[in-house]
Design brief:
Shape: globular
Largest sheet: 3 strands, antiparallel
Structural class: alpha+beta
Strand content: 25-35%
Helix content: 25-40%
Strand order of the largest sheet: 4-3-5
Number of strands: 5
Radius of gyration: 15 Å
Low-confidence stretches: none
Oligomer: single chain
Distance between the termini: 16 Å
Mean pLDDT: 86
Order of helices and strands: EEEEHHHE
């Protein structure tokens, strides 16, 4: 289960993965948690990830995409989150990435 919510004006994500799930991947997400308790996240569907693959990847037919699509999907959504510039703070604003 994946659910996005706004609680007391702050974004919240609830995710409960199915153990040993071998079903179809429907998307990917990345989360940044900040020291002040805030968070930022990015969610992408498989269609959006494949769009990035076909439109922007120089190696869209490489072994990495063909053999490890799930890992490339993680990389794609994390890169999209990082492009927002959330790591520019020199005092370590981000505590962890999920």
């Amino acid at each position: 289960m994946f659910e996005e919510k706004i609680i007391d004006g702050k974004p919240s994500i609830e995710f409960h993965p199915k153990p040993f799930n071998t079903g179809e991947i429907v998307g990917a997400f990345a989360v940044a948690l900040y020291k002040d308790g805030g968070m930022d996240y990015e969610v992408m569907t498989t269609q959006a990830i494949n769009g990035v693959r076909s439109n922007y990847s120089k190696m869209s037919n490489s072994g990495a995409w063909k053999n490890s699509w799930d890992e490339m999907a993680k990389k794609t959504v994390l890169r999209r989150l990082c492009e927002r510039g959330i790591f520019q703070n020199q005092d370590g604003a981000v505590t962890s990435l999920i």
